[in-house]
Amino acid sequence: MTAKRPENILQFRVSLDHLEARIWRRIQVPDSFTLKQLHRVVQLVMGWQDSHLHEFILSGKRYGEPNAEDEENVIDEGAVRLRDLAISNGDGIGYVYDFGDNWQHQLVLEAKLVSAPQSLYPSCIAGERNTPPEDVGGIDGYAEFLDAITNPDHKEYEATLAWVGGHFDPEAFSVTEMNERLRRSLPLSRKR
Fold first, then answer.
1. What does the alpha-carbon distance between residue 92 and residue 84 come to, in Å, rounded to a whole number?
2. Residue 192 reports pLDDT greater than 50
3. Hey, is 179 helix, strand or coil?
4. CA dihedral in degrees (52, 12, 56, 54; nearest 10)?
């Protein structure tokens, strides 16, 4: 599959809201991407598993995967390209993942750029900290999780570590690993 060459690139800062220790990523995506494609990028760079519902919120409008059983109007995220949104530098797009855990994100547009020669998009260019494990129970559950895994005397220490696979470093983050994840999972565009 030959990818189209993007003309313009949008740089967003994606941050997870309501946590004391900031968890964020800086991403660059073609403005030809749909909100559905942006959703996939956010899932990958934040380390989510895309196993729950999500939605974008912009100017009071909800964008997501339409559902015939949903009585509220949700605009099909696959039909909306980023370049068609009325956003300027500094504007934010809300993004909620996992309506049970209610992970609220802000995607703030930092810059509109011209694609760089030989660069691959989408890309992650910066960030901090590991994303909470899936199904940890939202903000409060994550705080309890961190308390349990950092205190060997905690009654749930061993069970919690086993649940998360034996190890979890809340400070871990690697731009290289994020970009490798993007390269493995998405068709990329290269400006030549």
1. 15
2. no
3. helix
4. 0
> Which of 170, 154, 134 is closest to 19 using CA atoms?
170
Do 6 and 19 form a contact (C-beta atoms < 8 A)?
Answer: no
Cα–Cα dist 49/70, whole Å: 23
CA–CA separation, 123 and 152 (whole Å)? 38
Is pTM beyond 0.85 here? yes
Residue labelled with tokens 């970009």? 179
**Token duo for residue 67:** 């559902």
pLDDT at 1 over 70: no
Q: What is the 3-class SS of 11-69, one letter each residue?
A: EEEEEECCCCCCEEEEEEEECCCEHHHHHHHHHHHHCCCCCCCEEEEECCEEEECCCCC
Q: Which amino acid is at 181?
A: R
pLDDT digits (tens, 9 = 90+) for 67-125: 877 667 899 999 999 999 999 999 999 999 999 999 999 999 999 999 888 888 999 99
- Answer whether 122's CB lies under 8 Å from 33's CB: yes
User: Is the link from the previous residue into 122 a cis peptide, with omega within 30 of 0?
Assistant: yes
| Cα 89 to Cα 92: distance, rounded to the nearest angstrom | 9
Q: Is the pLDDT of residue 188 over 80?
A: no
User: Per DSSP, what are the bridge partners of residue 28?
Assistant: 11, 123
